[in-house]
Amino acid sequence: MCIFCMIANHEIPSSVVYEDDTVIAILDLSQVTKGHTLVMPKEHYETLIDVPSQLAMHMMEVVQIVAKRLTTNLHAKGFNVLNNGGELAGQTVMHAHIHIIPRYEENDGFDVQFHTTEKPKDLAAVLSEING
Ligand code: AMP
Ligand code: ZN
């Protein structure tokens, strides 16, 4: 069974920040910054787009609850919300989850940068490819 399913079933220990019938939030073992939390459905879905939409919406409610708690109680000055969807995007545990990374200062261990490589020039063509 997948490691996050085992955590959701309380078969292996974790630090539970929030839990209800369908969603659980736990401290990430890596603690990229203090309070780094993972929000996941209790049921196994591989990536975010596999999660039924009602449950995905509820995950986002829990992200908001936990982000509020982290910023208030840990005095974070901000937070990043991140989902790695698929191996190419950096997903290592194939049970959908959303990272909440509280931010304290610029060099606090987390950094996101958008690197510009070859940009598509024709946005109308991109749009029609997306929307069909
Ligand atoms: P991702 O790369 O988006 O799939 O993130 C997986 C995350 O799960 C990593 O940040 C790991 O540190 C974290 N992780 C793996 N195993 C555990 C565990 N047993 N308890 C808490 N976090 C874990
Ligand atoms: Zn799982």
Structural features:
132 residues, alpha+beta, 19% strand, binds adenosine monophosphate
As a percent range, the share of strand residues is 15-25%
Cα gyration radius (Å)? 17 Å
- Following the backbone from N to C, one meets helices and strands in this order, namely HEEEHEEH
What ligands are attached or bound here? adenosine monophosphate, zinc ion
Low-confidence stretches: none
Task: Tell me what you see in this structure.
The chain is of the alpha+beta class and 132 residues long. The chain contains three helices and five strands. The protein has helices at 3-8, 53-73, 123-131, and strands at 16-19, 23-27, 37-41, 78-82, 98-103. The chain has a five-stranded antiparallel β-sheet with strand order 1-2-3-5-4, covered by helices on one side. It is globular, with a radius of gyration of 17 Å. The mean pLDDT is 96. The structure holds adenosine monophosphate and zinc ion (ZN). Adenosine monophosphate is lined by residues 3, 14, 26, 28-30, 84, 90-93.
